[in-house]
Amino acid sequence: MSRFNTSTNHPLIPNANEYMYEKQFISIHSEDRNVLKFPLASDFEIELPQDYCNVQGVKLDTWSFPSNYYVFSQLQNNISLVFEITNPYNPSDFMVNDPLLVAMCDAMWAYKGKQYIATIEEGFYNPFQIATELTNRMNLAVTNVIVDYIQNTLNDAALLEQFNKTGYDQFVVAYNEVGQKLWFGNKSSEFIVSNNSQVYVTNTLAEATCTRQHYPDFSNWGLPAYLGFSRQVATTTTSSGGVYPRFYYGDSNMPGDNGFWLIPDTQYLGVNSSIPVYYLEAPFRVNLMGQSYFYIEIEGMNTIDETIPFSVNRFTSTTNGTTGVVKSAFAKIAVTTTPMSQWYDNYSLPVKIYNPPAERIRKLKIKVRYHNGALVDFGTTDFSIMLEFMLLRPQNKREYSAFTPESYS
Predict the structure, then answer these.
(1) pTM score, two decimals?
(2) Which residues of 268-317 form beta strands (DSSP E)?
(3) Backbone phi and psi for residue 44, each to the nearest 5 degrees, phi listed first
(4) Do 45 and 193 belong to one domain?
(5) Rounded mean pLDDT, 307-330
(6) Residue whose C-alpha is closest to residue 42's, from 174, 197, 212
(7) Sheet of 116-119: strands edge to edge?
(8) What is the extent of the structural domain holding 254?
(9) Closest C-alpha to 84, from 190, 168, 173
(10) CA nearest 149: which of 103, 189, 113?
(11) Among 69, 209, 294, 333, which residue has the fewest nearby CB atoms (within 10 Å)?
(12) pLDDT tens-digit map of 226-245
């Protein structure tokens, strides 16, 4: 009767140390999270439908992601372009006696040495759209400064009303289809594009949300990186005497311009037949496609080691080590389409192996981010993934005896 003794340390049914290998698939939808607690689809926790015991391994089996997230957003700090007007147009140099132009000149001279910030709308752009957007936003940044000067310094309502009819319109950004580069120009004033501004490093914009450590990398570090700039100040070239920059393959900004995308306004000429225009060409081709990969992190299951952007610091200059991250991600997903679309894929190679098997898994903490650490902004759209759990089911020890009826005869 000892087999009925519940106080014994020996199991009633001994384990055979034999296991059955079993696959269990779990489908996870980001919309099933607690949206009140986790408003972002790219960072949430979720409770699984049951306890998964004796988990030997976990891998990503299939997935479906939307491709209508923003390439340019406040979250990624890549919607702002910083520039300065270093030599504003002075109407007196060209014998122009226009009170409005004089007031605009005074406003820009009073603002000289300070940075203008042109902030584009969040979203996705093609090269022509980004050229038009930058033209309007750069002019708007200067317009706001001039309005503030006329309204608060000059206190001239009539002059302000006159200026508001047109605003500042001297900046022109054009896209060269052949060279695939952006050209920046001003019809009357000299300027620079301040690609070394601290705005791109410290993320100090009031609207920006700082959610990650900023690495001093050399790609995707801000809006200028997408426009074809390096982290150096871009200075302008001047052209005058009626010889103005031109694209020779055809029309540029409007039909019939014959490639002349930057010419001065007649009201700025005065007694002169021409005034200098200022322009520059982005050194590299435009790249508006955004990140090509993002990473899925699942707390406790990460198995992918990841390098990080090179940083010039004491560690990298005095050692031959790396500042990469060990076990930083669970899966790496290629972004195969551009907005707006949905893409599906399967078969991810990385597998998280537990040795010994994980006793119990019931809750997952999931994060979807880019290589630079910024969260993927899915907005109100959702995604779905399916995980494959590799389970070991312990088998009971069974002993069988075989006999024939003849043995009892």
Answers:
(1) 0.80
(2) 277-281, 293-298, 304-306
(3) -160, 165
(4) no
(5) 75
(6) 212
(7) 116-119, 80-87, 190-193, 234-235
(8) 80-281
(9) 190
(10) 103
(11) 209
(12) 999 998 999 999 987 778 89
400 domain residue, yes or no: no
Cα distance between residue 264 and residue 189, in whole Å: 10
Q: Which of 227, 256, 281 is the last residue of a domain?
A: 281
CA distance 390 to 318: 44
Statement to judge: residues 25 and 152 lie in one domain? no
Other beta carbons less than 10 A from residue 304's beta carbon: 18
Per the CB < 8 A criterion, the answer to whether 24 and 51 are in contact is: no
Query: Distance (Å, rounded) from C-alpha 92 to C-alpha 114?
Result: 23
- Counting other chains too, the contacts that 374-377 makes at CB distance below 8 Å and 24 or more residues apart are 374/75, 374/76, 374/211, 374/212, 375/40, 375/42, 375/43, 375/75, 375/211, 375/212, 376/42, 376/69, 376/294, 377/40, 377/42, 377/69, 377/70, 377/73, 377/75, 377/76
Render pLDDT for 166-210 as a digit per residue (tens, 0 to 9). 999 999 999 999 999 999 999 999 999 999 888 887 654 444 444
Residue whose structure tokens are 């006696």: 97
Q: 351-382 pLDDT, tens per residue? A: 999 999 999 999 999 999 988 788 888 888 88
Tokens 């990469």 — which residue? 324
